[in-house]
Design goal:
The chain is of the alpha/beta class. It is built from 14 helices and 24 strands. The strands form 6 sheets. It has a 9-stranded mixed sheet with strand order 2-1-10-9-11-12-13-14-15. It has a 4-stranded parallel sheet with strand order 4-3-5-6, sandwiched between helices. The structure holds adenosine monophosphate. Adenosine monophosphate binds next to strand 13, strand 18 and strand 19.
Length: 503
């Protein structure tokens, strides 16, 4: 399976690290610079340490630490060995970590130094198949010698490179197996679609435990030999300092709404950038328009997911449509059978299946190889894709389908509304009742407070009666996960008995 003569889709990476060794890979505000040569050396050092701990091709290497360049060294070290890199959200609790360790059975588990003792104990208490608890290491103990043998092992495209657990809002989260071919196809597509060159500096304020910050951002930088402008997290002061030193930014929609909420967002401060990209959650059409009005930049929205990396993108050159996630990328085929329906994807970007979950994998693919994304959408006449929600968020009320996005867009357009989430709640007569959860400005334009009645009256002029919310609830904030996605399942649970009180 491995060895000389294998056509490794990531073979370019080793060449790049050597050829670009004096160029800057990461720069940060404090003046810290990491050159490609250092990435080469440190990832080789890390690979040697992994091998010393018994890591072989196919072994899982799990990491749950705060964002740091060492996480990238570890990722590249895993690619060198054919080990499977498995990043975990730092927000996961010990009980959740226990699930991931039991499911994935990693050989090594990296945690922050202060958690090492507790996690060793936790892992010892787990009953694992073969009784093989992972070796727990704190992130800074991995120093070793440079790997002296082959710097990169050539590995086939179908070798699993990463295991990324989906956010799993229904049921237990599953590990998506991403192959070398998936990663290579994704970065190749994105460099081309977004015109990245070695002269680019990408502002990176995303976390490293999700595909967005990792394979969509980091791999695009690596594949173009460009530079990352490193921010530990999205913090407005730091972002405004970093913007004039960057040429492109990738973010989730909340980055853009937060930028818009700050008076420092101007044409001048963004004049050196050529591209702003948004993904991971829906970008409101209004945010797109406001950002253009303030900066002159049209945010480029794209659509991706853990299992497929990026599927579609608005064009770099050509019309970027507010509210649309653009057209399929070169390697991705996207189909929707009905006029509005299930979005299905096939291509080199699509993952190899869920780890040790044959049945779930089987159920997620059509017999002709298309992956069922779980998203619903439609194409317009020019082939631009619009997402109307997850299929599990579809509301069926009195037998009629209501797509939340349509109602949310209508509510968001009302004066005084900041944002909204529309959900279905069990209803004794209708099966589900439409409920709008709305964040309103403290004082609506005109000086009055926005009321339930006012929202419903305003909607009634443009929306069919069966789709109208039966209740409008006002809240201070919508609950979101780390990637800025609204946690609709949590909202449904919170309001589950709204229509059943007294029954
Ligand atoms: P994750 O696997 O955590 O990246 O979540 C993937 C899901 O995020 C997709 O299946 C979509 O539901 C959603 N998503 C990603 N990008 C967009 C986008 N641009 N617009 C709307 N939803 C998106």
């Amino acid at each position: 399976m491995t060895g000389v003569g294998v056509d490794d889709p990531l073979a370019w990476l080793e060449e790049l690290l050597v050829a670009q060794s004096s160029r800057v890979f990461i720069k940060a505000l404090a003046g810290r610079v990491i050159r490609y040569g250092e990435l080469d050396v440190e990832s080789r050092r890390m690979a040697t340490a992994l091998r010393r701990h018994g890591v072989k091709a196919g072994d899982r290497v799990t990491v749950q630490v705060e964002k740091s360049p060492e996480v990238i060294f570890l990722y590249i070290a895993c690619l060198r060995l054919g080990a499977i890199f498995m990043p975990l959200n730092t927000a996961y609790t010990d009980a959740e970590l226990a699930y991931f360790v039991t499911d994935a059975e990693p050989r090594l588990l990296f945690v922050a130094p202060e958690r090492e003792a507790a996690i060793v104990k936790l892992c010892d208490s787990l009953s694992l198949i073969g009784d093989q608890a992972p070796t727990v290491l704190s992130m800074d103990t991995a120093a070793g010698d440079l790997m002296s043998a082959r710097a990169f092992m050539p590995l086939r495209g179908d070798t699993v490179a990463a295991l990324v657990y989906t956010s799993g809002t229904t049921g237990r989260s599953k590990g998506a197996m991403l192959t070398r071919a998936n990663l290579a196809a994704n970065s190749r597509n994105l460099v081309k679609a977004w015109a990245f060159t070695a002269d680019d500096v990408l502002l990176h304020a995303l976390p490293l435990f999700h595909v967005h910050g990792l394979f969509i951002a980091i791999d695009t930088v690596l594949a173009s030999g460009s530079t990352l402008f490193w921010l530990p997290k999205f913090e407005l002061d730091a972002v405004f300092d970093a913007l004039p030193q960057s040429t492109a930014m990738m973010g989730v929609p909340t980055f853009y709404t937060r930028l818009l909420g700050d008076s420092r967002l101007t044409r001048e401060v963004t004049s050196g950038l050529r591209l702003f990209i948004s993904g991971s959650a829906p970008l409101r059409a209004q945010t797109h328009r406001e950002f253009e009005a303030r900066t002159g930049h049209q945010i480029l929205e794209r659509y991706g997911m853990t299992e497929t990396l990026v599927n579609s993108s608005n064009p770099y050159r050509g019309a970027r449509r507010p509210g649309s996630v653009g057209r399929p990328l070169a390697d991705a085929e996207i189909r929707i059978e009905e006029s509005t329906g299930s979005i299905e994807v096939k291509g080199e970007n699509v993952f190899a299946g869920y780890f040790r979950a044959v049945e779930k994998t089987h159920d997620s693919f059509r017999s002709d190889g298309f992956f069922i994304t779980g998203d619903l959408g439609y194409f317009d006449s020019e082939g631009y894709l619009y997402i109307v929600g997850r299929d599990k968020d579809l509301i069926i009320t009195g037998g009629f389908n209501v797509y939340p996005v349509e109602i949310e867009e209508a509510i968001n357009a009302l004066p005084g509304v900041t944002e909204s989430a529309v959900i279905g709640i069990p209803h004794p007569d209708f099966g589900e009742g439409v409920v709008a959860v709305v964040v309103a400005q403290a004082i609506a334009p005109g000086g009055s407070l926005l009321t339930e009645e006012a929202v419903l009256d305003a909607l009634a002029t443009g929306i069919a009666k069966f789709k109208l919310p039966k209740r409008v609830l006002f809240v201070d904030d919508l609950p979101r996960n780390a990637m800025g996605k609204v946690r609709k399942q949590l909202l449904r649970t919170l309001h589950a008995s709204l229509f059943n009180s007294g029954i």
